[in-house]
Every structure is written in structure tokens, then in C-alpha cells.
């Protein structure tokens, strides 16, 4: 019998899906007839066969050929089957190879020994059971394969779990609602939490108040949107102490009812607290003064730059106060630098006390430190945000000076220390950091020259009106929504024929909670400078038309509404006017729009087109303050005007100034010559009325007839006139 194994190649084995070589089976039996039989049966079934007739050959063959299955007779010469099986199991490749032990007899002791020696299965009565062999072999191969796969995946799982458990980075796995399902030991090490204390809790548990909620929101949005979030955040240890982690968090998908959905989140975090602490230290060193702990010049300049770029001018004013200790050098010279430093620290302490009481002082957001800074040897700076007005600023500056007025006890000696303060206001005294700083410096210089222990504005007087304007501007933005605007109505009397009220002018008033009643002469120009005049003007038109429509019961009354230059040239004017008329149901001829002479004269061609369009609606057009603007009268013929309103300045002087008297008479005559109605404004005296009547003036308006009144009072006035 040859010792060489004869291997039969077959490409596919029925029952095996995997393409490639057919499984190799090593048959170990000393009986050549049995080997032949087995070879026949299994080759027929598509397997490859190798043979060995004794124990030692079997082991050599096994190592050489690495068969997929071993059929082993229990009784072979040399080593018996049990011994071969046990030795095969020792070989590196032999551990998982299925071994089918066969015997000629039905011997239960042999069965037990076979399993003890590591056999996978046992086939007794080999002479009778050959039919079963093929099936048994197939089953064992399949079971062996599955076992292998299982062992492989188990070992992979083990590696993964070991890797995660022993990972030097902290790992957190949560469910889709961010409730913690797993944390590794590194996580527990960093946070000081036991695993059992965090499992089932929401990751919110780790949130530190210093991490802005917007960061968490951003992270969450990214994750539920399927994205990966990377960043550094500050978290909380079990004892509440902050620690910084650099983290990558990503969603883990699973399938539910055939759909892929997020089932978990995986977060890998690295503790970067040491690095962050160093960064903060370095930052602190370069941004803070070591003697007082206050922000330094550089820090303040940066912060001021940020404030100025974000400040919602004109809603808020920002002031820079530079404070310089008077004669600080003398203290240094007398007591030495150590005491000088001590004084600076004491001064800082008093300032911090004051800060806690002073609102409006800016914060350095990140470090929660007020923007009081030490910007030089004996120089401090304060940034006041949302400063209300010069009075309030002066008051705050005085508080800072007062804070120093008590003596400082230094080395047993009472030391008196005063200071000078220079104030510059953004944007009046400078719209950027450099200019503002320079202005504050100049103001400081002036304060020192004014005898010290005092404060000075960069240009107090010059700024007062600017300040008021800024305040007005800032308040005006909210005037409409706060319902602070009201319309007053002033009657117009017909002079010729029957003397009766034929119309009225709508005049706007602004009643501000802080600043009281403000004249349109003051706030309309401000509203004109920005687009506020448009919503304000629209409101006036709507309100006046509505009032006039309601007062039609008192006669065919016409309401005069003032239009500003910006309104006239705004593209929506025509639409606004038609809308106001339509919604109030006021007949168009009962609306008169007043435009001043100077406005009409700007870009005459466009004006003519605009006025013609307006006129087409059916309303009246009046030239307001006539006589004060351009002297060219030729345009009167080209524009579709109905009314001239003689300016109050001429009417006022009628009878006392011959010049004004002549002008008024001439305007009336010229107006009539052009077929226009003439209205005289500002009639206060009876003799003015008489003169105007004599000249044929059509209507008069003025205190003599009635002052501008709020709607309710004006209605009473109209009622009284009717009776
Ligand atoms: P105006 O259109 O020439 O209005 C006449 C002004 O003279 C009103 O001042 C009125 O109160 C005042 N006045 C009337 N009769 C007399 C009088 O007998 N004596 C004196 N001393 N004054 C008299 P007011 O209401 O302060 O308005 C000033 C100006 O503000 C108006 O001059 C007008 O140009 C503007 N204005 C008023 N309301 C509005 C408005 O709703 N929109 C626009 N764009 N401007 C308005
Ligand atoms: Mg007017
Ligand atoms: Mg006028």
C-alpha cells in the first residue's frame, strides 16, 4: 500500500455553495477495503479523498494536506484513533477540523473515549452505516464551517470590545435621544463617574454652564441631520469641575422596517484640559495686567473694537473714559514702587466695588471681566455701553472720582490720591477705536489742565446738540410701535362769502416718555435723514384720511397733509395715497397734499411728472411756506398746483412791516392771477385777518381761529362751529 496520499480533485460538491476546490477528506483506516469503500462513496459524492493506513502517516498527512475533515478508525496500528485525534487537536490547524470517528462495533465505551479525545462525531458499526457516511460528512463540514465563522466573529467582537475598553480616548455611546448606553473606563477616569452612575442618564449631565447652549444646539442639529460634529467643549466632572474635551461625535445607523435610521450616537473624546489651561494662561498673560489683574491696553482696544463694530447705533451710544491718577509719580518717588503697586491694587479694588454698582459697563464676555482696564502706569480706562446722555456719563465719571476721594492707608500713612477723567463718545467724537481714543486723550489733557480731580468731555458743548439728536434718532425708531406719535388738527377758515371752517391741516406731534413733547420741526428732519419718514409719513396719511372721512358729517371738509421731500420722491407714494383714500373712503378732492417750495424746485422735471400723477387721483396740491424758497415763479404755471400757502413769517409782520404787507398782497394777487387758491398761515391777530380779507385771501389758518388740537378736542371744536 502506497504511503502517498492520492488526492482526487472535484470542482463542485453538491450541497456546498462555495465555488472552488471540493473539500478534502483524510481517511485513516488500516483496512484497505474500507478505505476503498469510503473513497468510492465520497468521491461519488464529489469530495476529494486522501488516505493513511496508520497513526503516524495520518499525522504527517494531516500536517501536509490540512484536510477539511478527518475520518478516523478507532483501531489503527501504531497510534490508535483516540490518540491520533488527541494529537490532531494539539496541532495549530487541528483544533477546529471536524473529526468523525468510526468503529466496527457498537461500543459505548469507545464512543465516550472518542468524544473525550476531541472527536466531533462518532459513527459506530462502520460496516453497516456507509449509506449514512455521505450525509454525516456533509453535516459535519457545514457545522464546522459555521463554528469557524462564529469563532471568527466572536474573536473580532472580543478585539473590538477590548480596543474600546482599553482605548486611551474616552468613548461614549448613547441612544438616539442622547441617553448614555455605554462609556469606557477612560471616560470614568476623566469624569470620576462610575459607569453605573451615568448609564441611562442623558449626556446633558456633562454640560458645563460655561459652554454656550448654542454650541450644544449646533452639535445636536448636526447629529440629528446625520452629520459628524467635531469641536472642543467644556464639560463637567462629577464634582462639577470643568474639563475640556476635543470630540468627534457621529450618528450610528440601524435599519427599522427596511428604513435606515439613527439608532445611536458615538462620541470619541480626548481630554485637552491641560492644553486649554495653558492657552488660557498665555492669553491671560498677554491680555491682563499682572499687578492689578485688570485687562491691559491691548485687551481693551480689542474689546472696544468689537463693541464699536457691533453697537447698534443710533440706538446706543458708547463712551470711552480715560482716567489718570494725579501725581502718581510723586507717590512712587516717595514710597517706592512696591507701595505704588499696592496703591494701584487698592484703586482697582475700589473700582471693582463701584463696577458692581454701575450698570452699563461692558463685560469682556469670555472672562466675565468688566471693561475697566489698566492701560498704562497710572492710567485706567472704562468703557460705558448704552450710555444714555452726557449727564449720566458725567454722573458716572464723578462716581469714579469720588471712589478715590477717601484716603488710602499705605504702610501706616494716609495717602490722598485723585484722578482726572477724559470722556469721548462714540460716534460723535470718533467712529473707530483710534479716533475715539485720541479724543478721550485730548479730553483727559483738558481735565488735567483744568486743575485735576475733575472730568471733561472731548467737546461737551459741541456735543450736546449732537447728543440730543442721537437720542432722538434712537428713540424715533421705536416711536411708531410705541404709539408715541399723534396727529393734531388745525382749522382753516374761509374768509370770502360765508365765514366757515372748510378744512384743517394735520400736524404731527411726538410724545416721548423720556423727552416729552417734541416738535416736528426737530424730528421730521431726523426722520428724513433715514428711511423712518416713509413709515411715519404713511401713518400720517392713513390717520389723517380716516379722521377727515369721519368728520365729513361736519361738512365738506378738506384735510391738508404735509409731505416731506423723501416721501414725494419715494416710489410707493402714489400707491400709499390711493390706498389711504380707498381704505378711509375719503373723496379724493377732500385731501390736499402740502409740499414746500424748496422741495418742488429740486429736479423740476421729475417733480412735474410726480405731481401730475398725484393730481390724476383727484386730490389737491398746495405749496407750503410760499415765499421762503426759490424766487422763480415761472414753475407755478408748469406744475398742477391748486393752493398757495403764504408763509407765517410774512403774515406775522402784516401791518408792522410795509415790506411784508406788500409781499403778502402781491402773493395773493399773483396767486389769484394764476387761478390758485391762497391760504395765509399763522394768523394770530384780528387786524391780520381784516387785512387778508381785504386783499381777497381765500382761507386763513392760525391761532386766531384755533390752535392745533388732538383729534377728540378738534371734533368738539367742529361740533361747536356747526351750532
Ligand atoms: P407747516 O406745515 O408750515 O405747519 C404750520 C406750523 O405753524 C405748525 O407748526 C403750526 O402749529 C404752526 N402754526 C399755526 N398757526 C400758528 C400761529 O398762529 N402762530 C404760530 N406761531 N404758529 C402757528 P408745527 O405743527 O410745529 O409744524 C411745523 C412744521 O413741521 C410744519 O410746518 C411742517 O413743515 C412740519 N410737519 C408737521 N407735521 C408734519 C407731517 O405730518 N409730515 C411732515 N412731513 N411734516 C410735518
Ligand atoms: Mg403745512
Ligand atoms: Mg407752512
Brief sketch in words of this structure:
The chain is an alpha/beta fold and 723 residues long. It contains 26 helices and 29 strands.
Average per-residue pLDDT, rounded, comes to: 87
CATH architecture of the largest domain: Alpha-Beta Barrel
Please outline the major beta sheet: 8 strands, mixed, barrel
Task: Give the N-to-C terminal Cα separation.
Answer: 146 Å
What layout of secondary structure does this protein have?
Blueprint: E1 24-28, H1 32-44, E2 48-52, H2 55-65, E3 69-73, H3 81-90, E4 99-102, H4 108-116, E5 121-123, H5 130-166, E6 170-175, E7 180-183, H6 185-191, H7 195-198, H8 213-224, E8 229-236, E9 242-256, E10 259-271, H9 273-287, H10 297-310, E11 317-325, H11 328-335, H12 337-357, E12 363-364, E13 369-370, E14 372-374, E15 379-387, H13 390-403, E16 408-410, E17 413-415, E18 419-426, H14 433-449, E19 455-457, H15 460-479, E20 485-494, E21 501-512, E22 516-518, H16 520-529, H17 533-550, E23 558-562, H18 565-569, H19 573-584, E24 591-596, H20 597-601, H21 604-616, E25 620-626, H22 635-638, E26 643-646, H23 648-652, H24 658-673, E27 677-680, H25 686-694, E28 699-700, E29 709-710, H26 711-722
Parallel strand pairs: 1-2, 1-3, 3-4, 4-5, 18-19, 21-23, 23-24, 24-25, 25-26, 26-27, 27-28
Antiparallel strand pairs: 6-7, 6-10, 8-9, 9-10, 11-15, 11-18, 12-13, 14-15, 16-17, 20-21, 20-28, 20-29, 21-22
Helix pairs in contact: 1-5, 2-3, 11-12, 17-19
Amino acid at each position: 500500500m502506497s504511503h502517498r496520499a492520492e488526492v482526487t480533485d472535484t470542482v463542485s460538491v453538491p450541497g456546498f455553495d462555495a465555488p472552488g476546490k471540493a473539500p478534502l477528506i483524510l481517511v485513516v483506516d488500516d483496512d484497505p477495503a474500507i478505505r476503498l469503500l469510503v473513497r468510492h462513496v465520497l468521491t461519488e459524492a464529489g469530495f476529494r479523498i486522501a488516505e493513511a493506513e496508520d497513526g503516524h502517516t495520518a499525522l504527517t498527512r494531516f500536517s501536509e494536506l490540512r484536510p477539511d475533515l478527518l475520518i478516523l478508525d478507532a483501531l489503527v496500528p501504531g497510534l490508535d484513533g483516540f490518540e491520533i485525534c488527541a494529537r490532531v487537536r494539539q496541532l495549530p490547524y487541528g483544533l477546529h477540523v471536524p473529526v468523525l470517528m468510526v468503529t466496527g462495533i457498537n461500543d459505548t465505551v469507545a464512543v465516550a473515549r472518542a468524544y473525550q479525545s476531541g472527536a466531533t462525531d462518532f459513527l459506530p458499526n462502520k460496516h453497516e452505516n456507509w449509506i449514512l457516511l455521505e450525509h454525516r460528512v456533509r453535516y459535519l463540514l457545514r457545522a464546522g464551517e459555521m463554528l469557524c465563522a462564529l469563532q471568527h466573529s466572536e474573536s473580532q467582537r472580543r478585539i473590538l470590545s477590548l480596543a474600546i475598553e482599553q482605548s486611551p480616548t474616552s468613548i461614549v455611546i448613547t441612544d438616539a435621544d442622547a441617553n448614555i448606553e455605554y462609556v469606557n473606563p477612560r471616560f470614568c477616569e476623566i469624569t470620576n463617574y462610575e459607569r453605573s452612575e451615568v448609564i441611562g442618564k442623558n449626556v446633558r449631565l456633562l454640560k458645563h454652564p460655561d459652554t454656550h447652549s448654542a454650541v450644544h444646539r449646533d452639535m445636536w442639529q448636526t447629529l440629528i441631520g446625520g452629520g459628524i460634529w467635531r469641536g472642543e467643549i467644556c464639560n463637567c466632572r462629577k464634582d462639577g469641575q470643568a474639563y475640556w474635551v476635543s470630540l468627534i461625535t457621529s450618528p450610528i445607523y440601524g435599519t427599522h422596517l427596511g428604513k435606515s435610521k439613527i439608532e445611536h450616537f458615538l462620541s470619541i473624546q480626548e481630554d485637552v484640559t491641560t492644553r486649554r489651561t495653558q492657552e488660557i494662561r498665555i492669553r491671560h498673560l498677554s491680555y491682563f495686567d499682572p499687578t492689578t489683574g485688570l485687562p491691559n491696553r491691548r485687551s481693551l482696544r480689542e474689546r472696544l473694537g468689537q463693541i464699536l463694530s457691533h453697537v447698534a447705533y443710533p440706538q446706543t451710544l458708547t463712551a470711552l473714559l480715560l482716567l489718570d491718577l494725579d501725581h502718581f509719580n510723586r507717590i512712587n518717588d516717595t514710597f517706592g514702587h512696591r507701595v505704588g503697586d499696592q496703591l494701584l491694587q487698592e484703586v482697582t479694588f475700589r473700582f471693582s466695588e463701584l463696577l458692581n454698582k454701575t450698570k452699563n459697563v461692558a463685560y469682556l464676555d469670555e472672562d466675565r471681566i468688566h471693561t475697566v482696564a489698566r492701560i498704562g502706569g497710572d492710567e485706567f480706562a472704562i468703557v460705558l455701553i448704552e450710555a444714555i446722555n452726557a449727564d449720566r456719563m458725567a454722573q458716572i465719571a464723578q462716581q469714579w472720582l469720588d471712589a478715590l476721594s477717601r484716603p488710602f492707608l499705605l504702610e501706616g500713612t494716609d495717602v490722598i490720591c485723585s484722578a482726572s477723567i477724559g470722556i469721548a463718545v462714540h460716534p460723535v467724537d470718533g467712529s473707530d477705536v483710534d479716533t475715539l481714543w485720541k479724543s478721550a486723550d485730548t479730553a483727559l489733557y483738558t481735565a488735567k489742565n483744568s486743575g485735576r480731580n475733575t472730568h471733561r468731555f472731548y467737546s461737551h458743548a459741541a456735543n450736546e446738540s449732537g447728543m440730543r439728536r442721537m437720542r432722538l434718532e434712537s428713540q424715533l425708531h421705536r416711536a411708531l410701535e410705541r404709539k408715541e406719535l399723534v396727529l393734531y388738527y388745525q382749522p382753516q377758515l374761509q374768509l370770502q362769502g360765508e365765514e366757515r371752517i372748510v378744512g384743517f391741516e394735520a400736524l404731527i406731534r411726538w410724545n416721548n416718555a423720556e423727552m416729552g413733547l417734541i416738535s416736528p420741526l426737530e424730528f421730521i428732519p431726523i426722520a428724513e435723514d433715514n428711511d423712518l419718514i416713509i413709515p411715519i409719513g404713511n401713518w400720517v396719511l392713513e390717520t389723517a384720511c380716516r379722521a377727515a372721512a369721519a368728520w365729513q358729517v361736519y361738512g365738506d371738509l378738506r384735510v391738508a397733509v404735509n409731505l416731506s421731500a423723501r416721501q414725494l420722491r419715494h416710489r410707493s407714494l402714489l400707491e400709499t395715497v390711493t390706498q389711504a383714500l380707498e381704505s378711509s373712503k375719503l373723496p379724493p378732492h377732500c385731501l390736499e397734499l402740502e409740499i414746500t417750495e424748496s422741495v418742488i424746485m429740486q429736479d423740476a422735471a421729475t417733480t412735474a411728472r410726480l405731481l401730475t400723477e398725484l393730481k390724476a387721483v383727484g386730490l389737491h396740491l398746495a405749496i407750503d411756506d410760499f415765499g421762503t424758497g426759490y424766487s422763480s415763479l415761472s414753475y407755478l404755471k408748469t406744475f398742477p398746483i391748486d393752493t398757495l400757502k403764504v408763509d407765517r413769517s410774512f403774515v406775522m409782520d402784516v401791518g408792522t412791516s410795509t415790506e411784508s404787507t406788500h409781499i403778502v398782497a402781491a402773493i395773493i394777487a399773483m396767486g389769484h392771477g394764476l387761478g390758485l387758491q391762497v391760504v395765509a398761515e399763522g394768523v394770530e391777530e384780528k387786524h391780520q385777518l381784516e387785512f387778508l380779507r381785504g386783499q381777497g385771501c381765500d382761507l386763513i389758518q392760525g391761532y386766531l381761529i384755533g390752535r392745533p388740537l388732538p383729534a377728540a378736542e378738534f371734533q368738539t371744536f367742529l361740533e361747536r362751529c356747526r351750532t
